[in-house]
Design a protein that fits this description.
Elements: E1 2-8, H1 14-19, H2 21-24, E2 28-40, H3 45-48, E3 52-58, E4 61-67, E5 76-77, E6 79-84, E7 108-122, E8 129-141, E9 144-156, H4 160-173, E10 177-178, H5 183-192, H6 212-229, H7 231-235, H8 239-259, H9 267-298, H10 305-330, H11 334-347, H12 349-352, H13 362-380, H14 389-409, H15 415-451, H16 456-486
Antiparallel strand pairs: 1-5, 1-9, 1-10, 2-3, 2-7, 3-4, 4-6, 7-8, 8-9
Length: 494
């Protein structure tokens, strides 16, 4: 299992890294030239499996490496390395790996990297080793080249906490941001010319037999992986990437809220404020994505074509600006600090948590943890027909938190009851979502009219359409709410 944290190294930052006090005390330092060739079958079998196969040459040695995709952790993945006698790939070595079925295939070189690699070895006070590596060079394929400049921290026997501690210390004094894409992923993008793709991730679940502490760590690790995996697509203005990052943020906030009564004072608030800020920036881009790709499409038959054309041009400009602000945010250190700090906290939550709940089997406490979120939904939904738009928005957020938590806890509860409750959650959420989308449509249309007064008639026409949708959603809410209330709360497995 390879565990490493990779940062992008800004141009001109090499000297600052060399002079950093934390790296001055390295036990050893060495530099070498490395050339790495990445291989795949004609059907791109390794790529489609999320894996990479490479041959690295340095100082007269050849090392073959197989890496598998990340599995529930943003910083860990399975890796196999073999030192070869020659300079030819040996697929027979794959027979003892999960990709043994590819051992009889034929592969060919696809792209290559060449870097100057500088390796420093640090020995943390807690024991073990951490390798601090800088790679400066380039990737090339099909006559095209892209620059490489990375700083990697790799665990070599030390405790994971030491890796996070070093990463936070370096990141607090150097303008470092995470490098979410592997060299293999960047190489394939160079070959195909395709932008980064969004990565779909199902809601993480908590198995039976783990403690509350282990449950928190599993949830946080998996959700951070989803957040990081979708950053490249979101930065490239991919609507799915933005949406999936936003879902990961919401699920992280739900996990913190779910366990909040048993966390050290201030821990949940400390991360929630940063997550809320990131969620707002993602939400702004997401709102314009939905407005342009869904709202204006759905309203096309009800709003005159000239009005739609005028609104679309202005809305696309706003959408582009929102995505630009999101890319600017990714270039700042905030997200990187959040990801590392939250990962370190989840690893150490057993020490900082309060009470004995976190040390008990999660199936003992799951019903009580879920009940607190369900109670909030039922309280906010009382007299639903009399609720204001703001109150319905609050109900929608509470319902999403309960639904996410129910998905987390599904393996711990009676399956038929979970399925029924999730069905009613989704039904109510759809009506609340239609109501919210209509409100957002009106808000954004009015913003366009405020900035460009001549769009007033077009915005008014769209607002009229949105009001009809909102009225229809309100009409359905009573029934959906009644069905939700009738559904029994899921019971724990007995």
């Amino acid at each position: 299992m390879e565990t490493e944290i990779k940062f992008l190294l800004p141009e001109g930052m090499q000297d600052a890294v060399d002079a950093h006090p934390l790296l001055q005390g390295a036990e050893s330092r060495s530099s070498r030239q490395e050339v790495t060739t990445y291989y795949d079958t004609s059907a791109q079998s390794f790529r489609l499996a999320g894996a990479s196969l490479r041959l690295r040459e340095a100082d007269g040695r050849c090392v073959q490496t197989l890496k598998l995709p990340r599995d529930g952790n943003a910083f860990s993945r399975h890796e196999w390395e073999w030192q070869l006698a020659g300079d030819q790939v040996d697929l027979s070595l794959l027979r003892d790996t999960p990709l043994r079925d590819l051992a009889a295939e034929k592969v060919e070189p696809v792209f290559t990297s060449g870097v100057t690699r500088t390796v420093r070895v640090l020995r943390p006070s807690s024991g073990g080793l951490i390798e601090v590596t800088t790679d400066v060079g380039s990737l090339w394929a099909k006559g095209q080249t892209v620059a490489l400049s990375e700083l990697e921290l790799e665990l070599k026997g030390a405790a994971p906490a030491a890796l996070y501690e070093l990463a936070l210390a370096l990141q607090s004094t150097l303008p470092l941001v995470l490098g979410p894409e592997s060299k293999a992923a960047r190489g394939w993008r160079l070959v195909t010319g395709a932008p980064p793709e969004a990565v779909k991730a199902d809601a993480p679940t908590i198995p039976t037999g783990v403690t509350g502490t282990e449950a928190i760590n599993r949830l946080v690790s998996s959700l951070i992986a989803s957040l990081v995996d979708n950053q490249p697509a979101a930065a490239a203005a991919d609507a799915k990437g933005v949406h999936r990052m936003r879902i990961a943020v919401r699920r992280l906030r739900t996990a913190l809220t779910l366990f909040r009564p048993h966390l050290a004072k201030g821990d949940e608030a400390r991360f929630t404020e940063t997550l809320r800020r990131l969620g707002r920036i993602l939400g702004e881009a997401r709102d314009w994505d939905v407005f342009c790709s869904e709202t204006l499409v759905d309203a096309a038959g009800s709003v005159p074509a000239p009005f739609m054309l005028a609104l679309r041009g202005a809305a696309e400009a706003e959408r582009k600006s929102a995505h630009s602000r999101l890319s600017d945010e990714f270039a700042q250190p905030h997200l990187t600090h959040l990801v590392i700090d939250l990962s370190a906290w989840a690893l150490d939550v057993a020490r900082t948590g309060s009470g004995d709940v976190l040390s008990r089997p999660i199936e003992e406490t799951a019903p009580d943890l879920l009940e607190q979120l369900e109670r909030k939904v039922r309280t906010r939904g009382k007299r639903i027909r009399r609720r204001s738009g703001e109150e319905l928005h609050g109900l929608r957020k509470a319902l999403k938190r309960f639904r996410y938590a129910l998905e987390f806890m599904a393996p711990l509860m009676k399956a038929d009851q979970v399925k029924g409750q999730l069905h009613h959650c989704k039904g109510l959420q759809e009506d609340l979502g239609m109501f919210n989308d209509s409100v957002v449509a009106e808000t954004l249309a009015q913003r366009l009219a405020d900035e460009t007064p001549e769009l007033g008639p077009a915005a008014a026409a769209l607002t009229s359409w949105a009001e009809e949708r909102r009225t229809a959603a309100v009409g359905h809410l009573q029934t959906a709410w009644r069905e939700f209330k009738k559904a029994p709360s899921p019971e724990a497995l007995g």
